[in-house]
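Marked as duplicate of an earlier ticket. Keeping the data here for the record.
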Amino acid sequence: MTLELRGVRKSYPQPDGGRLPVLNISHFQLAAGEQMALLGQSGGGKTTLLNVIAGITLPDAGQVLLDGVELSRLPEAGRDRFRARKIGVVYQTFNLLPAFTALENVLVGMSFAGGVDRRRALDLLRLVGLERRAGHKPGQMSVGEQQRVAVARALANRPSLLLADEPTANVDPRNQQAVLDLIRESCAEGQVALLLVTHSHEAASQFSRVDRLDQFNHPELVAP
């Protein structure tokens, strides 16, 4: 098993001194190499869930285990190193470094895990069809090409898990299917588990496993 959540709760403080519950998940799991789409509306806790899974945000209670390691037990620096080695993230807004080339963006992603492999970085850019754009900066590439760089960077450290946060939201309709196919095929080739969060029923329908966040997240049951 790659990912498991047990009794995970997360809430945020409010101006009136109360707490706003966002996550209340009794159990969730994603097997090694499995691909699933998670449907959820804006404000439903999707981003908080991904941040908790990635160890960026700590839960108030419960356990998040990836490859048997409980992330909340690691110090912040340890979580950062673990995330760099084990988790790839494709962001809705790409988060590429504008002053760096496509190749350099992938290499920077590798550096967080303690090693840089230029040959692998070039191979990944070839995989996403950008070997001839390796020396171009994000501002010199189309939106679709930028998203492809983001996919290459997310796969750079051979992660066990790829988190994709609305990866087609900022891509024009003509390239949305190409980006989705690229993510799924790249994960399948590397046996990387994929959790893709989306509000698009069309995108979700292409997965054999589709869950709705509100099916297993019940923050309304948490006492204020």
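See parent ticket for discussion. The radius of gyration is 18 Å.
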